Amino acid sequence: MIVGASAAGISAALALRRLDYRGTITVVDGDPHPPYERPPLSKALLDDTTGGLVPIVPWSTYADLEIDLRLGERVTAIDPGALKVHLGGGEQLDVDRLVLATGVTARHLALPHADADNVLTLRDATDAARLSAQLARGGPLVIIGAGFIGLELAAVARQRGIDVTVVEAQPRPLANIVGPEVASLVVDLHRGHGVRLITGATVERFAATGSTVEQVVLSTGHRLDTATVVVGIGVQPRTELGTSARVDVDHWGFPVNEFGQTSRAWIFAAGDVASQAHPHLATRGRLEHWDTAQRHGAAVGSTVAGEPVRYKEAPYAWSDQYDATLQIIGRPRGTDQVVIREGATPQRFLAFWLRDGRLAAAAGMDASREIGIARRLVASTVLVDNAVLADAATDLRALLKPHRPRSPEQLAG
Ligand SMILES: Cc1cc2nc3c(=O)[nH]c(=O)nc-3n(C[C@H](O)[C@H](O)[C@H](O)COP(=O)(O)OP(=O)(O)OC[C@H]3O[C@@H](n4cnc5c(N)ncnc54)[C@H](O)[C@@H]3O)c2cc1C
């Protein structure tokens, strides 16, 4: 039984079948839509030509692989004593292995009018349809929170000529993820496209007429006229089922071991909702990326199928910003040595983070090829030099080649 039919849950189901697991696989999700990719929701939001949701796998795959999808049904409780899962409609299903891939929900502002008709969050297909309809009316758009989703929405809206203001509590957007140097390049990119970015500011109140917010009043004294407000201030893990299942829950989600097991050995957690002590994280935490959730789900599925996989791959995330893609491999830390490659511009740059002489993380804008190589370098134990990385003439591929000491014969000529 898998709760959550998204990146992690579907990958777990596919991995089970790939490894010839013969038992029944049931995937339950409260979302009624056939399983779809979330990343396109914030990227093609205003694009009428996309024609709907992008399926994770073709619809026929589930029938072909005998994966029983129960969509539009919520799991309300787990009875670990009776080995039963309770659905919202009253049905009870037997379970002997459970994967919780319940993901996260968007955080809301605890302010009067935060539930107004034009104050929205973006997490699923229903949110995206609402936001799309709202934005079709035009701007101004005020985005609270300059995380990946907030900045992607800003880019999409600016490309459609909508007036956009982004409000961020921190001095620089994304600085906690990519550090101040790369964050400054991202800021320049958005300002260059006409986004008004107000940092070090929080929302003091919403001024509303009826059920519509008309102004956002900031701690800095700014009063921003608005037609639509998008709140992108982070997420909360969906750990409600932890109480009935009697599994541990922490600040980040369901704490799991390297195999994805929760505090109850037959209950696993995968994807965004898993609180992981991952080798690329300085402390226990969540990895909230599509690729990472898929890989973690696949690793957990493999473990459930009887082929245990320790999940320790470097996290990978991407974010489309205007016509370029920002990609990040690994998790930079404040104590790493940062190297920005010569010739960086907001439209195209490469940044590296060195830890103990090795490449720990890299970020690139419009640099897919280099990030692909950096991914291999991060996975390797190759020692790298900061001056070599900074040099725009260095071919990163050459760094992957192991440096073999030459034999006395070779040295002799
Ligand atoms: C708009 C948007 C854009 C994104 N863009 C990118 C991007 O460009 N790059 C990137 O790397 N990442 C991106 N992400 C992040 C990425 O989508 C997530 O990391 C990924 O979806 C996590 O997958 P998951 O399976 O762990 O959880 P989720 O995708 O959150 O899915 C959890 C599922 O569990 C279901 N569920 C929860 N509780 C229950 C219950 N009790 N009963 C039944 N069902 C339940 C939910 O309905 C949901 O469908 C984006 C996310 C969003 C929202």
Automatic annotation (TrEMBL):
Top-level taxon in the UniProt lineage: Bacteria
Domain Reductase C-terminal intervals: 316-400
Listed cofactors: FAD
InterPro entries hit by this protein: FAD-oxidoreductase/Apoptosis, FAD/NAD-bd_sf, FAD/NAD-binding_dom, FAD/NAD-linked_Rdtase_dimer_sf, Reductase_C
Keywords tagged on the record: FAD, Flavoprotein, Oxidoreductase
Matching Gene3D superfamilies: 3.30.390.30, FAD/NAD(P)-binding domain (3.50.50.60)
Start and end residues of each FAD/NAD(P)-binding domain: 1-297
Pfam family, one: Reductase_C
PANTHER family recorded: APOPTOSIS-INDUCING FACTOR 1, RIESKE DOMAIN-CONTAINING PROTEIN-RELATED
Protein name (Swiss-Prot/TrEMBL): Pyridine nucleotide-disulfide oxidoreductase
